[in-house]
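Task 17 of the worksheet. Students: predict the tertiary structure of the chain below and write it out as structure tokens. Keep your answer in the requested format; marks are given for formatting as well as content.
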Amino acid sequence: MKCEEDIIELATTKMAEAECLLNNRMPDGAYYLAGYCVELVLKARICKMRGIPDFFDFDSESKKKLKNEANITRPYKVHDLEQLMLLAGLSSQFEIALQDDDFKDSWAIISKWNENVRYETGQKTTQVQLFVTSIKELMAWIQKYL
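Model answer:
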């Protein structure tokens, strides 16, 4: 079962792995993996808010209850952090938080991430360190709403 507690634990583990990559001079992998940590925490919030018992088992035939369930759950199966913020019911709180300059600066760094960075190389260690710090701050902010 991948309920919110399981997903938070997974996000924490993935962050530790990202930091390990960064500490071992592998900033590209660290950048890629750290970005997923925010995605995971947002999906944990969605689980809690929507009462989803297993976020990663939407497609199980034995658990489907609606004939169009695949179409209904498709919006949740994204990597877009802004879309997930909306689906997690945090849009209003997020807009308020963006009024804080530090939060806004962190979001400016984080919002450049997308799942396609897995194909990119050349991340600078200092930039990834700042990215990881920003990710951890955003994760902590989201976890206040769990």
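Marker's comment: The radius of gyration is 16 Å. The domain at 4-143 is CATH 1.20.120 (Four Helix Bundle (Hemerythrin (Met), subunit A)).
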